[in-house]
Each structure stands twice: as structure tokens, then as C-alpha cells.
Amino acid sequence: MLEIKNLTVEVGGKEILHDLSLSVKAGYTTVLFGPNGSGKSTLLMTIMGFSEYKVKNGSILLNGEDITHMPVNERAKRGIGMMMQRPPNLTGVRLKDLVRIAGKGEVDPAVLAEGLDMTRFLERDVNVGFSGGEIKRSEILQLEAQKPCLLLLDEPESGVDMVSIEKLGLKVHDILQGQSHCAGWREKSGKAALIITHTGQILDYVEGDRGYVMCDGTVACSGNPRELLAEIRKMGYNECIRCKLKRPNVVENL
Ligand SMILES: Nc1ncnc2c1ncn2[C@@H]1O[C@H](COP(=O)(O)OP(=O)(O)OP(=O)(O)O)[C@@H](O)[C@H]1O
Ligand SMILES: [Mg+2]
Fold it and tell me: In sequence order, which residues have a C-beta less than 8 Å from that of residue 106 and are 6 or more positions away?
């Protein structure tokens, strides 16, 4: 579904991603690990198409279509949806209105909000004064309305309490299983997710099929996500860097 080839990206005049290649198959959940500052969020923001993220080289293909330089709204229309790590405050925009717009007027914000215990936030401005966990639930509420085909989740469980994690995890599962707002080929080929996680908690609700570890702005290694997580817990990230140095063409061989 998503094919990223030799991607080099600059942010604020600094090269953050270097020659990065990875793919996300339709119907599969791909998990992204990596130490702080390794470029995970930069990759997701680039896939979504935020304009500060300048692609200097390489390409991003969505089901064969080149979206490398496509504006963010066009990517959203094609079925990419994102939960940001730190979404902005939208002063003057009520959550209720944003959910309605994300759902193209076809969803009832009150019904969706109830399932995520977000009813009392609907009249509030998006993210303004929300706690960390409330922001994550607000993000998933918007995604539930949007029904994307490719879900980009940046640390969905971070800062979320244990009870809310279950609700949020089940929602992610439902979004991946349920109907989508993407017509034609996208509907047929199934949905996919690219999820950044440090703890792997989200994997209790969504089965990860493939994992990648990012280091210094590129993919260092790949494998089964649960095995990768266990390795990282045991050995840290240095082993991934060593693995990449030993097998520099590891990504091409995937
Ligand atoms: N606008 C910018 N100007 C300069 N450097 C930036 C800018 N945006 C991001 N960076 C740098 O790019 C690097 C990668 O950041 P990114 O947010 O992608 O990391 P991450 O892997 O998501 O980390 P974390 O796990 O902490 O969320 C960091 O060193 C960050 O400081
Ligand atoms: Mg990040």
C-alpha cells in the first residue's frame, strides 16, 4: 500500500531522514521503533505531507500513485489519517465541528464521543487545555470519524491511563477492521497501519506484522515486532546499529 524509497528529508534546513526505505502492505500493521530523536515522527509527518518537511530525494508511493509532493489535504482524501504525537491547539474550533467535518457530515459526533468517554469535550476548542491522555483520545475520535485506509499513529498509548488504553486500543482495532471512507481500489486492498511505539502496549490490541527500527534518520533493521521489542528491552538500540553496519543492504533485502 505504502512504498517509501530512498527518502531524504530536511526540516528547518537540517537533514533529518537519510536514504530511508520501507513499505507497509495492505492489510498489515507495521510497527516503528527507535530511540528519541531518531526521526520517527519526522517520517510520519512527511508521509502525511506537512509542508515544513521538505523531500530532497526519494519517493512516497500510495498504492502505486506518487504522492511525494502532494498537499496534505489530497493525501487525507486518498485515505491517509494521522494521530500526531503533539497536535496543535485549534483555538476557535470546537471538537464537535472537527469530528463532523472529518466524518464528512455522515457521523454523529455525540455517538462517537460516548464510546471514548469524550462527550464533555465536544463543545471545547480542540486540544486547548486537554490533558495528554485526552489529546490522544481526541485524536482517535477524529480518526474514527475520518475512517482512513492508512492509519499513521504516533505513540498512541503515550500518557494514556491503563483503563483508557484498552478503549483506545480497541478503537484502533475497530478502525482497522471496519468500513472506510476510501473508495475503489483502496477498499478492496484493505487497510493498513504504521504505528510508532516505545512500549509496545498497543500491540495487545492490534497484531503487528512487521517491525522496523529507526536509528539516526534511517531504518537500521527489521523483523517481527514482538521479537524486536524483546531484543531492544534486553540489548538496547546499539545492537540494531551494529546489525545495520554488518549488513548495510538489509533494507534492500526486505
Ligand atoms: N524543525 C526542526 N528543526 C531542527 N531540527 C528538527 C526539527 N524538527 C525535528 N528536528 C530534529 O529531528 C530529529 C528527529 O525528530 P523526531 O521528532 O522525528 O524524532 P522521534 O524519533 O519521533 O523522537 P521521539 O521518540 O522523542 O518522539 C530530532 O533531533 C529533532 O530535534
Ligand atoms: Mg516522535
Answer: none
Cell representation of residue 161: 491511563
Ligand 1 closest atom vs CA 214: 21
* Whole-number Å distance between alpha carbons of 82 and 106: 20
Cell numbers describing residue 76: 487525507
Q: Does domain 2-246 have CATH number 3.40.50.300?
A: yes
Quick one: cell of 151? Answer: 492509519
Task: Give the cell for residue 158.
Answer: 503515550
Q: What is the mean pLDDT of residues 225-232?
A: 92
Q: CA-CA distance, 191 to 173, in Å (whole number)?
A: 11
Closest-CA residue, ligand 1 atom 16, reads: 39
Count CB-CB contacts under 10 A for residue 47.
Answer: 22
Residue listed under C-alpha cell 474550533: 93
241-244 long-range contacts, CB within 8 A, separation 24+: 241/215, 241/216, 244/215, 244/220
Tell me the per-residue pLDDT of 145-186, one tens digit each, with 9 for 90 and over: 999 999 999 999 999 998 889 989 999 998 888 776 665 544
The domain locations on the chain are 2-246
Residue of the CA atom closest to atom 27 of ligand 1: 36
Which tens digit of pLDDT belongs to each residue from 4-40? 999 999 999 999 999 999 999 988 999 999 999 999 9
Question: Kind and range of the H or E element at 239?
Answer: helix 238-246
Ligand nearest the Cα atom of residue 53: 1
Cβ atoms within 10 A of the Cβ of 210, count? 20
